[in-house]
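Quick one: structure tokens for this chain, please?
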Amino acid sequence: MACIGVFIGQCGVTIGLQILSSNPPSLTCYDGTQHAIFIDTEIKVIRRVPKQLLRSNNTFSDFPGCGGCFAKGLASAESFIDKIMDNIRVEIERSDCCMGFMLIHSLCGGTGSGYGSRITQEIKSLYPEMFVVNVAVLPFRTGRTLFRVITYCLQLINCSSILI
């Protein structure tokens, strides 16, 4: 039984790399690659993902930056959601029996919160019978900017309306 890991934003990618370093059987495909997709707007974060772990097109980093803004991340995700969902569909087809998804992202920051919300919404719409474990990481501190607090609140409101 397989699970598809979707790691979004710098926080999600960093945690995802730690998880995959232990080679969990539920995320490992028959050919040794991982059922995982990494998404971030910064190429420097995606470059840390070892290429031998993934299929080559399961990393996304050619998006415009979100600047730590939930609304910008959510709007930006609209133009890339089809490409991301195509890769998720391919990963489902590669697994012998997909039970669900594990999404890891931050509540603060534009990519983690905005893209995380939009991808969660699309997964729940297309695959309502599958489990979705949505791990949303809280920041250690609220931050120096008002954007971070607003982003945090918007993300919580959006995720609660999707998952209920």
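DSSP finds six helices and five strands in the chain.
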